[in-house]
Amino acid sequence: MTVPAILALEDGSIFRGIAIGAEGHSVGEVVFNTAMTGYQEILTDPSYARQIVTLTYPHIGNTGVNSEDEEAEQIWSAGLVIRDLPMLASSFRSEQSLSDYLKARNIIGIADIDTRRLTRILRDKGAQGGCLMAGEIDEAKALTMAKEFAGLKGMDLAKEVTTAKSYEWREGSWALGAGHKTFSDAELPYHVVAYDFGVKRNILRMLTDRGCRLTVVPAQTPAADVLAMNPDGVFLSNGPGDPEPCDYAIAAIKEILTTGLPVFGICLGHQLLGLASGAKTQKMKFGHHGANHPVQDLTTKVVHITSQNHGFAVDESSLPDNLVVSHKSLFDGSLQGIRRTDTPAFGFQGHPEASPGPHDIAPLFNQFVELIKARR
Ligand SMILES: NC(=O)CC[C@H](N)C(=O)O
């Protein structure tokens, strides 16, 4: 028996399909992601908090889900929109079907809608407020809720998704069939404090693989507490929402930058580094969400295939003299990387941990470690 579901948009559109997850309703900003797979990483990426994600690739769920690919402890995305859920999930790593996974975690999903039409709306009109409803349907109510969604501009979500308490992280990447490797402190020469604004686990693993002993701290940790830990470097994580209202983080980063400690920011962390350096950020029309975005390193001219997930960006015209552009998107020329000229700090807008290239842009993590070594 199929359960009905709808997606209502603030522009008045209604898409009718079937429920593939929980029943109820959910409101958020509707965005499209063009990745062919990686749906489990997308769903659990805290940067997708308050966002309903539609995947443009038509068959989603083919490989089921497993306990190794979670980027966080829970699903943060506000819902999933797909064209077609295959009847069979098949992979040697599959532990559960996508549909059972969504139901078990009380996340609403919809399938059997025209995701091409939806994507054209999002591309032409920009990301839309939306409401997913499954089970008992009230279209008028769904439309009202979609229209009433305030939008992500001005919304500080980092403090909502961050860890409540600091913790230590020693887990590296996984080796096929061997699980994740746990390192001993003796194997990890550099102490890095990682600000958790909504951090993805694979970022922590890739830093650990490169010799970083991590202390992950809550988003609102003051700079003084971080500096008291005497770290060799500070990492600023990705995260959801608008970077601009995160004034506590901007103030802390500003203070940390004055010490000359190596600082590396990814996505929201990159945007916060920009703000702390005096640049401005802006909301994009529909953002970048996908796994095949070409980004050029302006120094080497090398083009990297990158994973992207952002709806805000650092405004290039606002960069102060001590901040230079290091990377640019070859899709739309937008700013993708910044580097401070007066202190060892840099940021990258894409997601080097998401491995679409698959390892194209991973050397950014090495670059951070090189800065740590140089300072020592
Ligand atoms: N992945 C991220 O860190 C996203 C950053 C920010 N929330 C944006 O949408 O631009």
TrEMBL record:
Q: Which domain of life is it from?
A: Bacteria
Question: TM spans, by residue?
Answer: none
- Residues binding L-glutamine are 47, 239, 241, 268, 271, 309, 311-312
Is the keyword Disulfide bond assigned to this protein?
A: no
Protein name, please?
Carbamoyl phosphate synthase small chain
- Reaction catalyzed: L-glutamine + H2O = L-glutamate + NH4(+); hydrogencarbonate + L-glutamine + 2 ATP + H2O = carbamoyl phosphate + L-glutamate + 2 ADP + phosphate + 2 H(+)
**Any GO molecular function:** carbamoyl-phosphate synthase (glutamine-hydrolyzing) activity
Where the record annotates domain Carbamoyl-phosphate synthase small subunit N-terminal, the positions are: 3-133
Enzyme Commission numbers on file: 6.3.5.5
Pathway connected to this protein: Pyrimidine metabolism; UMP biosynthesis via de novo pathway; (S)-dihydroorotate from bicarbonate: step 1/3; Amino-acid biosynthesis; L-arginine biosynthesis; carbamoyl phosphate from bicarbonate: step 1/1
**One of the Pfam families matching this protein, by short name:** GATase
Per the entry, what this protein does is:
Small subunit of the glutamine-dependent carbamoyl phosphate synthetase (CPSase). CPSase catalyzes the formation of carbamoyl phosphate from the ammonia moiety of glutamine, carbonate, and phosphate donated by ATP, constituting the first step of 2 biosynthetic pathways, one leading to arginine and/or urea and the other to pyrimidine nucleotides. The small subunit (glutamine amidotransferase) binds and cleaves glutamine to supply the large subunit with the substrate ammonia.
Q: Which UniProt keywords apply?
A: Amino-acid biosynthesis, Arginine biosynthesis, ATP-binding, Glutamine amidotransferase, Ligase, Nucleotide-binding, Pyrimidine biosynthesis
ATP-binding as a keyword?
yes
Report the SMART domains cross-referenced here.
Answer: CPSase_sm_chain
The entry's family comment says:
Belongs to the CarA family.
Q: Which organism is it from?
A: Zhongshania marina
Ranges for the region named CPSase are 1-190
Q: Where is the active site?
A: 267 (nucleophile), 351, 353
What quaternary structure, including any partners, is listed in this protein's UniProt entry?
A: Composed of two chains; the small (or glutamine) chain promotes the hydrolysis of glutamine to ammonia, which is used by the large (or ammonia) chain to synthesize carbamoyl phosphate. Tetramer of heterodimers (alpha,beta)4.
Q: Which SUPFAM superfamilies match?
A: Carbamoyl phosphate synthetase, small subunit N-terminal domain, Class I glutamine amidotransferase-like
